[in-house]
Amino acid sequence: MKTKIISGLTFLVLVLLTACNTETPKDETAPSVSTDVINVPATASGTPAEPGSAPVMSFSEERHDFGKITQGEKLSYSFMFKNTGGSDLVISSAQGSCGCTVPTYPRVPVKAGETSKIDVVFDSEGKSGLVQKTVTLVTNCNPSTRILTISSTIVVPEEE
Fold it and tell me: What's 139's domain CATH number?
């Protein structure tokens, strides 16, 4: 009986010791994978892009200042961009930094050479002083995220 218990414990200890060996054996003949293979921008079709043919989102400006405005005003601005790359540009999301900043973006691919826009509506209700908000775009470009910025100095109207 004692022999079975000792044999069982010995087996358990051996299993635990070999399970804790976290070192991975190195195979010198295995090819290494370059990070370039993993980080390849894709076209809208999902196939890897040829060098120079990936979509490129080129903005005329990425910041807009509304200047001095009165609290409660609702303003909008269109950020114009062009796909200067060689394949379809896809915007998968556009997210404002708060509920007061609402973007609208094209839901269809923007072809190479085409222009389009990101419309941003800013509601200054409840805001005062110097305010800066952002819109984060997620695209199939490299890098995959772009940030657009709007700012304003909001003046609270004097009560009568």
Answer: 2.60.40.10
